[in-house]
Design goal:
By secondary structure, this protein is an all-alpha fold. The protein has one domain (3-96). Helix content is 80%, strand content 0%.
Length: 104
């Protein structure tokens, strides 16, 4: 299956679920994050997710550079990743795909 199509198939329902969850939440996203960081067990999961988000950002930056893209074009994906972790890389893959390595 095409990677862009797979990313889109994952992105659409996950973004819809994220939006639905935020609309029905009884607390703000910041309050929820602070609550998660208050306990060591849930803090470990949050730290792990953001380490993966950082790796995803490194990959997007590298891929964007290999395409000769601007930082401004990459900024929305990085911001989405900072707030919603997986939505940024999924959107990046769905829209941009993966740059092909040049053959020498």
């Amino acid at each position: 299956m095409n990677l862009r199509l797979l990313a889109l198939i994952l992105l659409v329902p996950f973004a819809a679920y994220t939006g639905w969850t935020l609309m029905n939440a009884e607390q703000s996203l910041v309050a929820f994050g602070l609550e998660l960081m208050a306990r060591p067990d849930t803090a470990q999961v949050v730290i792990d997710l953001y380490m993966m988000a950082g790796l995803g950002c490194c990959w997007m930056i590298s891929d964007n550079r290999s395409r000769g893209g601007s930082w401004l074009a990459l900024l929305p994906y990085l911001l989405l990743t900072a707030v919603f972790v997986s939505l940024g890389p999924l959107l990046y893959l769905a829209i941009r795909g993966v740059a092909r390595a040049r053959q020498i």
